[in-house]
Design a protein that fits this description.
single chain, mainly alpha, two-stranded parallel sheet
Length: 154
């Protein structure tokens, strides 16, 4: 995840951490993300990582592609480990694409990257930090379409 100055489209801060897990990492996850058990071995305790992310993201709007998935994960774990819920507004580029491109059947990050000519490296795709960066670029390129469709800026 990263913090972005929306007016300038500039990344002003980044947050990345790994979380220790108490079970074997599924091979599917390693194949999809490139994350290994060695990466997680030096990770943070989940409660510490969640508190750190909560503090880091306070006062921001959360932006994600398929934000429903991310927001449910965060909300469930905030409640379980921190005793609270996500309170920030959430902007979902998947739903935004469905609004801006109602005739399109597909709205994946890969499809949107191609549409807005954002380079998407298949080796790093599905890593949270990389996907956050690409989602930011896509949002920046789609902003004029938002203005044209709604007569509003984001």
């Amino acid at each position: 995840p990263q913090q972005v100055n929306p007016a300038a489209g500039q990344i002003i801060d980044r947050y990345q951490t790994f979380i220790k897990i108490d079970e074997p990492l599924p091979e599917f996850i390693t194949g999809l993300t490139g994350i290994t058990e060695d990466d997680l071995a030096t990770g943070q305790d989940v409660k510490d990582a969640l508190q750190e992310f909560k503090d880091w993201s306070e006062g921001t709007t959360l932006v994600a592609h398929n934000a429903l998935f991310d927001n449910q994960f965060l909300s469930r774990n905030y409640e379980k480990h921190l005793g609270c819920t996500v309170t920030q507004p959430v902007l979902d580029t998947l739903e935004l694409s469905r609004f801006l491109n109602p005739d399109s059947t597909y709205h994946s990050l890969k499809i949107l990257a191609k549409k807005y000519q954002v380079a998407l490296d298949s080796k790093n795709h599905h890593r949270a930090d990389y996907d956050a960066e690409k989602t930011t670029e896509i949002l920046s390129y789609s902003a004029p379409n938002i203005k044209a469709s709604t007569n509003r800026n984001i």
